[in-house]
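just leaving the lab so this will be short. below you get a single protein, a line of residues and a line of whole numbers that encode the local backbone shape. id like you to explain what the token line says about the fold, in plain words if possible. thanks a lot i owe you, the record is right below:

…
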Amino acid sequence: MFGSLFRRNASQKLSALLLIFGFIWGLVLLRYTYQHPRHQNSVELREQILELSKRYVRALAEENQNAVDGPHGASMAGYADLKRTIAILLDDILQRLGKLENKVDYMITSSLTNNTNSTNSNPVSAASNKQMNVQEFSALCGLTSIDGFPHCEAKIKWMNEMWKSEPCYASYGVNGTVCSFIVYLSEVENFCPMLPVRINEIADNDALKPKAEVVSSLGGLLEILAAREELTWVKLRIERMKENWIADMKALAKKQNLENRPKKKILLHLGLLTKESGFKIVENVFKGGPLGELVQWSDLIASLYLLGHNLILSTSINELKGHLSILTGNKDGCPIRGPRLLDLIYIDIVGLKQLQTVLGASFTHYRCLLRVLDSFGTEPEFNHAEYAKKKNHGSPWGKLNLIPKQFYNMFPHTPDNSFLGFVVEQHLNRSNTTLLNKIQRTNKALVYGKLADYWKDKTSFLDIVRNYAEIHGTFHNEHNVLLPNFVINHGILSGYDLHLLLRGTKVFVGLGFPYEGPAPLEAIANGCIFLNPNFNPPKSRKNTNFFQGKPTFRELSSQHPYAEVYIGKPHVWTVDIDNPSDVKEAMNQIMELKVDPYLPYEFTSEGMLERLNVFIEKQDFCRQREIWPPLTALTVKMAKPFQSCVEVCQREQLICEPSFFYHLNKEVELQRYGIFCNSSKTESDLYLPAFNPQNQMCLFQSDYLLFSCAGSHEHYNRICPCRDYIKGQVAICQDCLKREAHN
């Protein structure tokens, strides 16, 4: 009956379409005339509408393409206007249909909404009982899968019973239908994936937003920082490095297409600098205090500014409240209504706790925007609040229930998290060439340790080293500690003077602490060889007080695992410093070597700009519209019992990529990789998905926040998603930049 309608010309389509929907409207009214069969008729009718709509849109698209390329292209402007008119009328008709159906549903089922055992209700209405099949009902709304959203099903069921409990739900369009639940839970609270039609609408809106333009000067940023005393150290670092920043930004823009990027409104809240944190970092920043976190914040701020985004800085709770004042004061259980005011929020864990307090119920609305600077990493079993409680994992930093990739680390040590990194400062690379040529590298050893505790019980080790090289230190004089009399102490040096010292030094000597700092990379970048103490057994929260509160079971095999694994010899020698013969053998070989300065690309300003830009463009924890990294990077490996995916991938010179777990968590997908299941079951634990070789059973993950590269099992083989990476840029796969590069 309807097929002939699609063969008519454009001017006839509107009348035909109205006739079709008039007919459908009659069917909608007719289905309520009879109560008993209305479930089946509703489903069938919905399928007819969807199928008819698909056929119509497909026909329009084909005709439009032919017309544009054909002899009548000049007349298509009027046709486009007609199509827009049809689209508006369609939208109006569909809205009216929806309102009519909702009203009739409500009248028929209002007496049943409190009876959760009712079996006579509309399958997409609020009268559905506790056994509602969320997957089937979601499909009726156009949602094909809720993979990657572990709490979606439970939240829909909760809304099914409680949607009338808060009056504000109705203001968001919640009307008792499953479709309205999904719209609310995807666009307001981010517990479910967005409906495809809404994704397209929002994508169209995003295309109209202002574009980010590459910035060629840091003058504006430095003026902003100069007005904030607590950011003096940050300002000085960026100011010292500005020439490198600008040069590398220009270099990246030449290599990659940085046009047509949406300009993001980004809040950066430095919780560690707030007075409420009690850390007193501002007071101690020029006295040899820990600087790792500030280094990372400085480089993040500079990168975002140069990439052309709109930054909002916050270093106090009152300031945070001021920026988010429109979101506070909500008295009911719903987030504040209104457009999302921010695109991204960069924050540390201290600041995250503060943000939760400030936002209250609205925190849920902004959860997916968070990017949490987290030096040592947060593994899924600590991030997952219920699992951490079940396992009695005590940590003041865990139980945040974020997607693990939202945690941004200083080094690529935890593949479950994202590697943000930092920039290794190079005072002497692009200037002072004459000076560099005059500096002679001599047999000097500079000890990595500014505080007294680092030197404790290390005299016998340093006694061996001084037989090969003159020992130097940069120890703060205020600590008034007696150093071994053979140490030449320079005190706390400026960055420039420290790099001059490193340029004339042969070996940079680690003492075992601090763990994973930036200083060894600075030394290697200045041509030093790093003597890296190994740990046997490895250090972790199981045996080391420093890691007791850290939300990770990660084991450190040395003072600097990144230098050990990703750089290695001849620049890095990992040695047992408590074994005199090992130390002597290493020093004998080191003193015969001559190495050039070396810095991995990912720790240059260009490398960080590249990495951060890709994250901003591709990491989407709100809509999750596509798998990223692309599946072309995936290599599937099977672990042995007791092996984690971190170990298996690393042995193959690959990296575990947790984003691919979603893809592998289905029997049909495993078959593509030669894994066949005689049977399967679904559970929730860290080692899933996995394979039981005894009975050929596949075990799948039911809780997506527990996808973990780190877990292992004593009997099962883990199914591991590994990926390749760009040498010197481990956060990015080899195909990840292809669409970004210029042709």
